[in-house]
Amino acid sequence: MEVVIVPDAKAGGELIAEAMAALVRRKSDALLGVATGSTPLPIYEALAAKVRAGEVDASRARICQLDEYVGLPVGHPESYRSVVLREVVAPLGLDESAFMGPDGSAADVQGACEAYDRALAEAGGVDLQLLGIGTDGHIGFNEPCSSLASRTRIKTLTEQTRVDNARFFDGDIEQVPHHVITQGIGTILEARHLVLLATGEGKADAVAATVEGPVASVVPASALQLHPHATVIVDEAAASKLKLADYFRHTFANKPGWQGL
Ligand SMILES: N[C@@H]1[C@@H](O)[C@H](O)[C@@H](COP(=O)(O)O)O[C@@H]1O
């Protein structure tokens, strides 16, 4: 696992956007797995800016989603499908046909989960999967004690996650669904490159447990330690509880430029 400490969220967004742009320059139809929440927004802004500036042609890129609420009406502005179409697909100048996601309104939720895992495999697998992290260490919506081998499936949110996400629903926790579909941890680990961005002091404990704690399902993000190409990018506040912070700084400062992320 590589840990990169950046001064702030904007620098993290720029670094990751450049890694995504470099991937798309190498593989124009790359399948980019995106995450929701507030943290990755600087990545999407930086990548869209590169597209507008002609630094990368993303017209053949494909976008896929990590997770989704179950039971929101189709087209609800806070369904993750709507969020990804609005925050990622449209700003990159892509059409909805470039987008894949699980169907949170399906009558057969389990069938929709299995169909999504199949669709990801048929699309050739995810090239780069962006991840955020919940305050309890969740990735996607894999709450603590999710199986490290799990596939895309339905999960029940913890109260803490519903409280954290109520801000997207007018601060009203009653509007936050209890159930979600999420790529499983086993599914996520199949992506070729995992890139987790965490910013702010509120993520410091989860980041320390992820990077320096044992691999344990009680901290779902710790599964990144099992992946051969995982990059964790944190700002100073999110890095504040890392014992090896100086080592991570030293390693990145001395990294050969050609290596990329
Ligand atoms: N399902 C999403 C996660 O993918 C995201 O990482 C997390 C943190 O969100 P934020 O970045 O807003 O803190 O929120 C939600 O639970």
UniProtKB/TrEMBL annotation:
Allosterically activated by N-acetylglucosamine 6-phosphate (GlcNAc6P). It catalyses: alpha-D-glucosamine 6-phosphate + H2O = beta-D-fructose 6-phosphate + NH4(+). Residues 10-225 form the Glucosamine/galactosamine-6-phosphate isomerase domain. Keywords: Allosteric enzyme, Carbohydrate metabolism, Hydrolase. Pfam families: Glucosamine_iso. Its EC number is 3.5.99.6. InterPro entries: Glc/Gal-6P_isomerase, Glucosamine6P_isomerase, Glucosamine6P_isomerase_CS, NagB/RpiA_transferase-like. One of its GO terms (molecular function) is glucosamine-6-phosphate deaminase activity. SUPFAM superfamilies: NagB/RpiA/CoA transferase-like. Pathway: Amino-sugar metabolism; N-acetylneuraminate degradation; D-fructose 6-phosphate from N-acetylneuraminate: step 5/5. CDD domains: GlcN6P_deaminase. The active site is at D67, D136, H138, E143. The record marks S146, R153, K155, T156 as: Part of the allosteric site. PANTHER family: GLUCOSAMINE-6-PHOSPHATE ISOMERASE (PTHR11280:SF5). Catalyzes the reversible isomerization-deamination of glucosamine 6-phosphate (GlcN6P) to form fructose 6-phosphate (Fru6P) and ammonium ion. Belongs to the glucosamine/galactosamine-6-phosphate isomerase family. NagB subfamily. This is Glucosamine-6-phosphate deaminase. It comes from Streptomyces flavofungini. The gene is nagB.
